Amino acid sequence: MVSGSRALYSDAVRERWRHPRFRGTVAEANAMAEDVNPLCGDRVRITARVENDRVEHVRFTGDSCAICSASADVMAEHAEGHTVSEARALEASDILELLRTDVKPTRMRCVTLPLSVLRTALDGRAGVAHGRGDGQDVARDATREPREDTPGVTS
After folding, report:
1. What is the pTM of this model?
2. CATH at residue 79
3. pLDDT-based confidence at 12, cuts 50/70/90?
């Protein structure tokens, strides 16, 4: 838990939120997913390129709070170059350690949303997966158009 003497956001969270290194889209992605947290409106979309069971490239886009954006950025950095199973094994505690921060239990979904979207993308390779916002992710055929409420994806 963040004590009263610590800033609301660590320097790492502020830096990753203001200057994300892995925001954007992956050209020729073969793993894609997005989900939204209906309680706060955070939306995260992950695109990745997986070759020979290795996450070659991963990027995120979305409209989300500082904690969620910073978590997505750190997650992408630590998933890229690793095997699918290693990327899937990333946990919220790993992200919090890398960001050198703690969050209140009410903000934990800000950290876990990017992780669940990455897992959905990796599990649904060659398809586009959209979550329902309740943690019960749903796969979608990649040949369909994106949902109408999905904002345009740009870097």
Report:
1. 0.76
2. 3.90.1010.10
3. confident
